[in-house]
Structure formats: C-alpha cells, structure tokens
From TrEMBL:
<dbReference type="GO" id="GO:0005829">
    <property type="term" value="C:cytosol"/>
</dbReference>
<dbReference type="InterPro" id="IPR050807">
    <property type="entry name" value="TransReg_Diox_bact_type"/>
</dbReference>
<feature type="domain" description="HTH cro/C1-type">
    <location>
        <begin position="36"/>
        <end position="90"/>
    </location>
</feature>
<protein>
    <submittedName>
        <fullName>Uncharacterized protein DUF955</fullName>
    </submittedName>
</protein>
<dbReference type="Pfam" id="PF01381">
    <property type="entry name" value="HTH_3"/>
</dbReference>
<dbReference type="InterPro" id="IPR001387">
    <property type="entry name" value="Cro/C1-type_HTH"/>
</dbReference>
<keyword id="KW-0238">DNA-binding</keyword>
<dbReference type="GO" id="GO:0003700">
    <property type="term" value="F:DNA-binding transcription factor activity"/>
</dbReference>
<dbReference type="InterPro" id="IPR010982">
    <property type="entry name" value="Lambda_DNA-bd_dom_sf"/>
</dbReference>
<dbReference type="GO" id="GO:0003677">
    <property type="term" value="F:DNA binding"/>
</dbReference>
Amino acid sequence: MVIADRIPARTALAAAVAEPGGEPDEVDALTLGRRIRDRRTALGMTLGELATAIDRAPSQVSSIENGKREPRLSMLRTIALALGTTVDDLLRADAPSERAALEIAVERAQRGPVFAALGLPTFRVAKGMSDQTLQTILALHHEIDRLHRERAATPEEARRANAELRAEMRARDNFYPELEAKAAELLEAVGHTGGPVSHQLVADMASHLGYSLHYVGDLPHSTRSVTDKRNGRIYLPTQQSPSRDSRSPILQALASHLLDHDEPRGYADFLRQRIETNYLTAAILLPEQAAVRFLTEAKNLRRISMEELRDAFAVSYETAAHRFTNLATARLDIPVHFMKVHESGTIIKAYENDRVRFPSDALGAVEGTTVCRNWTARTVFDVEDRFSPWYQYTDTSSGTFWCTSRIEKAKEGEYSVSVGVPFEHVKWFRGRETPHRAVSRCPDESCCRRAPGDLADKWADASWPAARTPTSLLAALPTGTFPGVDQTEVYQFLEAHAPRD
Ligand SMILES: [Zn+2]
C-alpha cells in the first residue's frame, strides 16, 4: 500500500531533514531522489543494478529517484549501503549541484497548485534544456504565484479571521464582562442614573477622558471620525446622515481610546477591534443594568420586543437587536441568533448560539453567503407593511425557530435585521401568536436554490439573463493598516486642523 507506506516514511524523513524554519515537503523527496540518482550514475550503476542490489523492482527505484515516493528509513539505509554512502549524506537538504537545484525547483513548481490550476501539460526536464530556459520558466511561475497570492490572500484571510471570531463570540454567548465593566465605569463617572444616554452625556464622557469634540466639513471621506491623540481632539463630520445616531461615532472614537487599541497588526486584529468598539458603544447606549432590568420585566410579562428595547433607549433597531444578543443568554437564559442580510440575500453579519444552521462556505465563513429564501430574513422583504414588526416560524433542518425581522435602509440598499430563538423560547416574546409559517430545507438545493422543475423545463433553454456584476465580486478588500483608510489624507487633515501655538 503506497499510502500506508508513505506516512511513516514521511515522518522519518521530515524528522531527519527538518531545519529550523524550513518546512519538510515534497522538495525533500525530490532532493533525496536527485541525490540517489546522482550518486548511482557517478558509480556507473544502472537503475536495474541498484534495484537488484536493494531487492526491489526497478519501477520502485525510479519512483524514488523521481521524488514521487519517499522511501522508509530502513530502505534508505539499504540504498545508502548499496551506493557506498551514508543516510545522512543522502538526506542533505541541498541539491547535489546548481543545475540539479534548478531542475528540482522546476519539477516542484509543476507539482504545485498554481501550475495545476493553469491546466497546462507537465513536461520532463530534459538534459538538453538550457539553464536559461529553466530560469525563465521558474521566473514566470513565481510571478503567476505572486499574482495569485496578491489577489487571494486578503479576502481569504478576512473570511478566516471572521469565522474564528464568530466561534469565540459563540463560546462566550456574545457577552464580554470586561467591556460591560468599562461601560459601567464610564457611565458612572459622568453621573448617568438611568434612561437613554443623551448626546450631552456623551460629550461629557469625551471631556471626562480628556477630549474635545470638533465638527468639521472636510473629514477624510474614508473615515467616520479622526482622533488627534496629541492634542486630545476628536473630529466629527458636520453633516450627519439622518439615519445615523450622532452619539455613535463619538462613542466609537472614545471606545478605541478606552480599549487602548494600537494600530491593527492585520485583518484579524482589525476585525476584533471593530467588534470590541461596537460592543462598548452599544454597552454605553444600552447600559447593562438598565437594559437587563427592562428586558427581565418584559420577559416576566412575556412580551420581549426589539422595538420596545429600541424605543426605551433611543437607539437604532440594529443596535437594539445586536445588544439583545449580548444579554439574552448570559442574563436572560435565552439562546438566540442574529442576522443582518442585504436585500440580495447576502449575509452581512451573523451570530448564533441556538443551533440555527447558517449557510457557510468551505472555510466556514457565513458572511457573504446567501440565506434561504424561506427564512424570515428574506421573507420580510416581501411584506408591504414596513411599520409593523414581522414575525415568522420557520421549520429548518435543525429545528423550528421563531424570528422577528425589520428592514432598514442604507445607501447600498435595504437590509433586514433579524433576531430569532428556538421554538421552546418563543413564549417570552411578543409576536409568538403569528400565523406566518415557512419550511426551509436548505442546504438541500431543491429548497430554494434550484428552479422548480416545470419552470426549468420550460425556460432553461430559452432564457439568457445578462448578469449585473456584483461590485463585491471583483473589488479587492481594502488594504492598509486601517483597511480602506487613506493615511496620507488623514495626516494632511490632522496637520491642517491641529492647533497652532
Ligand atoms: Zn432554502
């Protein structure tokens, strides 16, 4: 069995040749094969003669020399003996000559995923090929590889980081006591005694932390606020979009300061900072103590409602719904899920600890995938009445869930914001008497991803839609220390606005 043979061989080989920082991989088998062949030909030995000497089939020796197969350590000893050398010499990591190194590099490139993706036939490196030919092939390969990485690295890194963060949030029931404590401390410092947090109180928080607020008309377009840490100033736009809460950008700027955020080290760091910042902002706008009191009362009356939470604290529906997920499990014993879904069906944000099964891609990323058409997050778009809350029961592959959803408008289109709980917890919520029911068989494709048979039969060969290319398909994720922010613009802005002395 080739496979069974490979595993111990690889381990022995890897252990023998592993160098600090160097990953043992196929190059080792290739280099080893080359060393064996070089040694054999130097001795004037044929492939058949070596095969006989070690009591193996010539084809096996050939596979080893071509680096297609790694010999077990015991066989390697036999080979070394037959070639009058040592295992250590055969396992040296460097190629026997410069030409061999070049040939090995070309061979290795051909076996990698980048070359495979090009769909080109592989070739054997012949003796007659000049070094220059091989160098050019190698240079071309490296350039294609570089272009691939440049294009693919960022979105993939972001998606992976996002999936990891969601797993962490799930493990903590999306509740962060240390952030709650920071929010409580700041609220107490400015004498908040309950009720909604006013704009004036937020300004007081800023001055308590040593910052003054400056409203300007020329804030760099890629920012929501800019903080001058040297002079203790927070710059904010004079023009607020009417749907935006004027307190949020100030609190977000203060949150970064309170959390001692440094320049993000990468995308994962950036995402984590953003989650912490948003959490702290929401924890200030809906203080834990007051919000838990409000929600517990509602639970006792069996009428928990996102709209009432929103109105009681004068925040957006999304902020209220999101804040509910922080407190629901940790403080009210209710497992919950949350989704923000674009009108196209694409998931923008998602959180769950109630076993609802979100769609996900191969990397485990939920954001960017499409949610079932029968879920509340989608059906709400078909509801004409945009003022009343929308409730629905949905039977899914992981149980029955009850969800409430509301549409919010943004400049990129409409979004639904949904909160849902498993069937056994619906008794605490207003809207449980809804007659709306749906069945979702996703991820079974026949649920909503494939066209119904009769329609498909009729139209499959007679239709040609011209796709409107989604902008997100081609746009690379923003790059830079603060993704999407133009540093030059920010520095020039700060320079222009800094106080002169
Ligand atoms: Zn579906």
